[in-house]
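Quick illustration for those who missed Monday's session on complexes.
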Amino acid sequence: MATGIFAGSFDPFTTGHLDIVERAARVFSEVYVAVLNNSQKRCAFSPQERVAQVDRAVSALPNVSVISFNGLLVECMREHNIDCTIRGIRSAADFDYERGMAQVNSQLWPEMDTVVFLARPRYMHISSSIVKELASYGACIDGLVPKVNESEIVERMRNNGRERGF
Ligand code: PNS
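Prediction with 4'-phosphopantetheine bound:
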């Protein structure tokens, strides 16, 4: 069976992301969740915090590991012998973005492939940005992020979310 990588900023990791990882773990022999560690990108959570959040959320899945990466995704794939990138799509806008990324990645490394999971309806409205926005206004984020990470996200966004413009 093939191996897959689900890469992203995960700032923060949502229940929509978790659903994709759980589904991918049933299809791939090994799934890597790769947290982008890019100092150019302003995030609410440090790379270490994001890795820890994903780790807590996927701890029950035996064939899932969490790593962080910077640079090109295909280089990370080559380094870990990973066959496919795993992506989730919620909308037509996501599709257009993903199509471009899939084409760039396969041009960089023709041996790789991209496998897309369609978001299930109950997760289609969830994004990391929506989570941060709601939490920064003190609104309920129950069900939008894994329960194990909820209090950390609520605290962080309540304390400095709006001032710092996350
Ligand atoms: O959280 P996102 O925006 O969905 O994650 C996008 C990500 C990290 C998968 C993408 O930006 C990426 O692969 N970045 C690494 C740099 C790279 O390989 N770029 C070429 C592909 S467009």
